[in-house]
């Protein structure tokens, strides 16, 4: 089969402005828990961020995701109760010196955000044998996470905050949302307009954990292999300094 001109995209790199916009979106995306406004998310905007999620890559083009929009106060109250139960268990797992700061963190916006959204993975969406999943069975879950990140970035570009809540027993979420066994609740998200976006991750500004140096995370050829050569190491440090300055 020959490739026709119309089968190609007209450009390879994006324009400088588009590229800057992409990096700005990536660098300014935040996990939002405490800055939600109650205004509803307009349908057209919601549709666009869901399209962004749906255009994520997926193993074997499986598109295993579905999107459960949770507006019902009753359903959200049940999810919030599931969070409270899991969060109490989680707090008890940290050593004493960390447990108090853990309890002081706000780790969800389930009732504050006007919309909650569960992104699920249907592990049977494309039958039992899926191109690309034959030897790495978790690839459909990873594909669903790609959809989550696409949505998160598109939401940031639209001025919408997203907060991921994973401190919930999955079996309870499964029950509350009526998910069949083959469907995994990959991400429970809170979504809505925000008063502002924080400049830094909240866990960093509250002293829980700081961003690592990228250059320490890059090794040559094998785990624990040589550090990158000095030119690449400098480029990595410069790029991270650029990101820290806001891009
Ligand atoms: C898979 C997964 C699961 C969770 C999160 C993220 C991801 C990727 N994060 C958000 C997390 O704390 C946050 O991404 C980091 O602290 C970095 O901050 P920014 O996302 O850059 O603002 C998160 N935050 C929170 O308050 N409660 C939670 O349960 C979770 N769960």
Identify the quaternary structure here. Answer: single chain
Strand count: 4
Helix content: 40-55%
What's the mean pLDDT score? 96
Strand arrangement in the largest pleated sheet: 1-2-4-3
**How widely separated are the two ends?**
43 Å
Number of helices: 8
Number of domains: 2
Determine Rg (CA atoms, Å): 20 Å
How do you describe this structure in short?
InterPro entries: BluB, Nitroreductase, Nitroreductase-like, Nitroreductase/BluB. This protein is α+β, with helices and mostly antiparallel strands.
Structure in words:
There is one protein chain. The protein is of the alpha+beta class and 247 residues long. The protein folds into 2 domains: 24-210, NADH Oxidase, CATH 3.40.109.10; 212-247, no CATH class. The chain has 8 helices and 4 strands. The protein has helices at residues 16-28, 43-54, 73-93, 96-104, 139-157, 170-177, 202-205, 230-244, and strands spanning 65-70, 115-122, 160-165, 183-193. It has a 4-stranded antiparallel β-sheet with strand order 1-2-4-3, with helices on both faces. Helix 3 packs antiparallel against helix 6 (170-177). The longest helix is centred in the middle third of the chain and has 21 residues, at 73-93. It is globular and about 50 Å long. The termini are far apart. 22% of the residues are buried. The mean pLDDT is 96. It binds the ligand Cc1cc2c(cc1C)N(C[C@H](O)[C@H](O)[C@H](O)COP(=O)(O)O)c1[nH]c(=O)[nH]c(=O)c1N2. InterPro entries: BluB (IPR012825), Nitroreductase (IPR029479), Nitroreductase-like (IPR000415), Nitroreductase/BluB (IPR050627). It catalyses: FMNH2 + O2 = dialurate + 5,6-dimethylbenzimidazole + D-erythrose 4-phosphate + H(+).
């Amino acid at each position: 089969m020959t490739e026709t001109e119309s089968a190609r995209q007209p450009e390879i790199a994006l324009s400088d402005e588009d590229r800057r916009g992409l990096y700005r979106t990536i660098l300014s995306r935040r996990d939002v828990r405490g800055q939600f406004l109650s205004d509803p998310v307009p349908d057209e905007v919601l549709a666009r961020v869901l399209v962004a999620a749906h255009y994520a890559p997926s193993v074997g083009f499986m598109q295993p995701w579905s999107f459960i929009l949770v507006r019902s106060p009753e359903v959200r109250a049940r999810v919030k109760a599931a969070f409270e139960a899991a969060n109490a268990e989680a707090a008890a797992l940290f050593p004493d010196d960390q447990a108090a700061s853990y309890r002081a963190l706000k780790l969800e916006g389930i009732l504050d955000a006007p919309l909650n959204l569960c992104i699920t993975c249907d592990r049977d969406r494309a039958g039992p044998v899926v191109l690309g999943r034959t030897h790495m069975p978790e690839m459909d879950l990873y594909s669903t996470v790609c959809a989550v990140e696409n949505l998160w970035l598109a939401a940031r570009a639209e001025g919408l905050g997203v907060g991921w809540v994973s401190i919930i027993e999955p079996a309870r979420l499964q029950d509350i949302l009526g998910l069949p066994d083959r469907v995994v609740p990959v991400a429970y998200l809170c979504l809505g307009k925000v008063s502002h976006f924080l400049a830094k991750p909240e866990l960093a500004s509250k002293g829980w954990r700081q961003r690592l140096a990228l250059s320490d995370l890059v090794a040559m050829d094998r785990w624990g292999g040589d550090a990158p050569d000095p030119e690449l190491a400098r480029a990595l440090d410069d790029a991270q300094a650029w990101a820290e300055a806001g891009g």
